[in-house]
Design a protein that fits this description.
Layout (H helix, E strand, L loop, with lengths): L3 E4 L4 H12 L4 E5 L12 E4 L8 H5 L4 E4 L8 H11 L2 E5 L15 H14 L4 E7 L5 H12 L2 E4 L5 E2 L4 H14 L6 E5 L5 E2 H12 L4 E4 L2 H6 L7 H14 L9 H6 L6 H7 L7
Parallel strand pairs: 1-2, 1-4, 2-3, 4-5, 5-6, 6-9, 7-11
Antiparallel strand pairs: 8-10
Helix pairs in contact: 1-6, 3-4, 7-11
Bound molecules: NADP nicotinamide-adenine-dinucleotide phosphate.
Length: 285
């Protein structure tokens, strides 16, 4: 069996995909920008490469049929990179987002959405057999949202406390990815919306962290403007408006919930409480 190429294998989701794929015994190659810094399982073949440097991609793709793609690089690099992938591989599984789900939370215009749509169009026109994974809000975002305040004390301020999402555990996104990467053509042309199992408001998510940690947290709503310069100060500027717009749009109806994890893996989707329980170190001082 030819190795499966993971692009983004040092990141949140790609790292989980590498771990779970190697556990199945499948041969795995990881395209990495900095092999010296990549901490990957010893059986993973490390291929130095950079999506923004197309001349590095042929060597990474030699002998590859199937690619898992996480894209956080620049838009200008999309066309040459997909062209290089299509020259060698026959299948691609792309980590996208729920671009087509008719829920206001997923339908706000922003630059990430525009980029993901452009990548999907390029993939679909490339001749590759494709599968798009469409995870909603990652549970791991709570590390950045509330980790700093919970490590510093008991007061947690946040905007739109009533806004619901259905946070999805990165282990479940990876489990779906592994099925699509290893099971072959039955996933061709499929688009899998992957969410956590329940709609939870920000207030409920913060309270869950407090409960799991055995802490009594004081949860206070602040305005979007107060949040920008206060509790959201550590979040990149480019992400703040996208998040605030999506949360404002999400108010007033439950978050969209899918059962893709259950349907594809046969296992129950992990809850947000499961994620917090596995990640308590994030919230400890
Ligand atoms: N956060 C959410 O709630 C959410 C929800 C739905 C979809 N998404 C999508 O999920 C994706 C992010 O996934 P993630 O959290 O796993 O990302 P991440 O942890 O930031 O990892 C990004 C990976 O891409 C690699 N990479 C970056 N630039 C590269 C380049 N030029 N060439 C080769 N590799 C490169 C990084 O490698 P290095 O180690 O070299 O940096 C790293 O392995 C985004 O596309 C986002 O739109 C996010």
């Amino acid at each position: 069996m030819n190795p499966i190429l993971i692009i983004g294998g040092t990141g949140n989701i790609g790292g989980q995909v590498v771990t779970q794929l190697t556990a199945t015994g499948a041969p795995v190659r990881a395209l990495v920008r900095n092999p010296g810094a990549a901490q990957l399982p010893s059986q993973v073949e490390v291929a130095p490469g950079d999506l923004t440097r197309p001349e590095t991609l042929d060597a990474c793709l030699a002998g590859i049929d199937t690619v898992f793609l996480v894209w956080t690089a620049t838009a200008v690099a999309v066309a040459p990179a997909i062209e290089a992938i299509a020259k060698h591989a026959s299948r691609i599984v792309f980590l996208s987002a729920p671009l087509k789900t008719p829920h206001p939370f997923f339908q706000q215009p922003n630059s990430s959405r525009t980029l993901a749509e452009a990548i999907e169009r390029t993939i679909e026109a490339s001749g590759l057999e494709w599968t798009h994974l469409r995870p909603g809000m990652f549970a791991l975002n709570s590390r950045h949202f509330w980790g700093p305040q919970i490590r510093a004390g008991d007061l947690v301020q946040w905007p739109y406390l009533a806004a619901p999402t259905a946070p999805i555990d990165e282990r479940d996104i990876a489990a779906v990815a592994v099925r699509t990467l290893t099971e072959g053509s039955e996933h061709a042309g499929m688009e899998y919306v992957i969410t956590g199992p329940e709609s939870l408001s920000h207030y409920e998510q913060i309270a869950t962290i407090g409960d799991v940690m055995g802490r009594t947290l004081r949860i206070e709503e602040v305005s979007p403007d107060e949040a920008r310069s206060g509790c959201m100060a550590g979040i990149p500027e480019s992400a703040k408006d996208k998040l605030l717009d999506a949360w404002a749009a999400a108010l007033g109806q439950p978050a969209f919930v899918s059962n893709t994890v259950g349907e594809l893996t046969g296992k129950p989707t992990r809850t947000f409480r499961d994620w917090v329980t596995a990640n308590t170190t994030v919230f400890r001082t």
